[in-house]
Amino acid sequence: MTQQSERPRVRFAMIDVFAGEPLAGNPMAVIADAQTLDLKHMQLISREFNQSESTFLLPPTRPGADWRLRSFTITGAEVFGVGHHTLGAWWWLAESGQLALSAPSNTFVQEVGESLLPIEILAKNGRPLAIRMQQEPPVFGAIYKDHRELSAALNIPESSFTLEQLPAQVVSTGVAHLMVPIKSREVLWQVRPDSQGLLAILKSCGAEGCYLFSLDPIDSVATAHARFFNPTVGIAEDPATGSAAGPLACYLVAQGRAEEGKPLFIEQGHVMGRPSLIEVQVQGSEVKIAGQGVIVAEGNLYPSL
């Protein structure tokens, strides 16, 4: 039998993202040395970690990029855009000494899919304080008007929506999600989606996930309280979703419910017992999300390569 020390190994870390303390926020796995892994192994490893997303660190393939990131869900679906799956990876790179953080503000470029996106790491004494990432300019898509179908898919009454004032609309800042306004946090916590019904709605309007929100948050610093469901890639519920928080901030600015150019905070994950706080700033077509992370575990993985 081959000794463990002789087997090929790759390093990994577990990061709690959009959290200031362990065992909160959105957990994810970061896998270093991923250039030794093929697509099949990346998908199998993502299944093994059983997180909503696992991110693999690779050398860049395009000029100007510092790192290439590939992220996969439990089901093996590759996800793009900028969110907790990218912020957590950069937090590990910063904390593990892989980056030179010589200034209070340090800029890098990440290759995610076909996009090259800047990332800013705020630091003190070489340690990260926060990470700010730029998303794609907002694209406002279809408005979903079938309130009855939406009500059935979410298992709440039609009276639960605030659709008279705010529409259910698809918005993208890299990944298209359906924004759905709910009249209160109390009702929002009662949502128990029918995955197949919600999947059909999302496919019909060109969205990947569904971001439900109310405007009565728990934390006084927050503007919205949110929950995220994504049956298209096998995510039952997510405790913090940067790729949806950016679109929601753009939506709220466009609807006159948030001020352009000022930080906006979205809370998420409370119903799952993993409270998260995501900062977003919208200035014209520029969208930036920010947050922190916590390394909660590190080790070696021994896949059969």
UniProtKB/TrEMBL annotation:
Catalytic residues in the record: E53
SUPFAM superfamilies: Diaminopimelate epimerase-like
MF terms in GO: isomerase activity
InterPro entries: Phenazine_PhzF-like
Pfam families associated with the record: PhzC-PhzF
GO cellular component, one term: cytoplasm
Entry superkingdom: Bacteria
Name of the protein in question: PhzF family phenazine biosynthesis protein
Organism of this sequence: Ktedonosporobacter rubrisoli
Lineage, broadest ranks: Bacteria, Bacillati, Chloroflexota, Ktedonobacteria, Ktedonobacterales
